[in-house]
């Protein structure tokens, strides 16, 4: 299992551990998603994400986590939603969409713990995740319910700091 020195777990006022993650897509078509091997169970796939640091914004944590766990950089898109895992862990995870623009050959978790990454068609990723990470499968199910990125349903709350001019992707007349 991955253990980070000096990591401080952060919790919201209701006692949920604050986490952030990204669905990393190969293109803006959002038809292929990048999954990484679990640090605890290397033969299982997960959505890259992890705990937020104190004073860290969810969007910044999500970008940092995918850089550390998946070795990718990209264009941060919309907030897909905030997902809760209540039963045993009490996690509250902010999940964003990220379009990958750069793939590192070697990255932190590949070197330190041998983490792997692989592209999956969205339908295949849902099947792979449903058996051991059903909450991660829910992220992709919600993405599918929200529609494709080109049908006008993708306008989401703006991510603080992502666009210095705060120009929306679509103007109301474009719909």
From TrEMBL:
Catalytic activity: diphospho-myo-inositol polyphosphate + H2O = myo-inositol polyphosphate + phosphate
Cofactor(s) annotated in UniProt: Mg(2+); Mn(2+)
Compartments, record wording: Cytoplasm
Annotated region described as Disordered, given as residue ranges: 144-175
Chain ranges of the Nudix hydrolase domain: 16-144
Major subcellular location class: cytoplasm
Gene3D superfamilies xref list: Nucleoside Triphosphate Pyrophosphohydrolase (3.90.79.10)
GO molecular function: bis(5'-adenosyl)-hexaphosphatase activity; bis(5'-adenosyl)-pentaphosphatase activity; diphosphoinositol-polyphosphate diphosphatase activity; endopolyphosphatase activity; metal ion binding
Amino acid composition bias (Polar residues), ranges on this chain: 147-156
InterPro entries tied to this protein: DDP-like_NUDIX (IPR047198), NUDIX_hydrolase-like_dom_sf (IPR015797), NUDIX_hydrolase_CS (IPR020084), NUDIX_hydrolase_dom (IPR000086)
GO cellular component: cytoplasm; nucleus
EC numbers for this chain: 3.6.1.52
Biological processes, Gene Ontology terms: adenosine 5'-(hexahydrogen pentaphosphate) catabolic process; diadenosine hexaphosphate catabolic process; diadenosine pentaphosphate catabolic process; diphosphoinositol polyphosphate metabolic process
PANTHER family, per the entry: DIPHOSPHOINOSITOL POLYPHOSPHATE PHOSPHOHYDROLASE, DIPHOSPHOINOSITOL POLYPHOSPHATE PHOSPHOHYDROLASE 3-BETA
Family: Belongs to the Nudix hydrolase family. DIPP subfamily.
Name of this protein: diphosphoinositol-polyphosphate diphosphatase
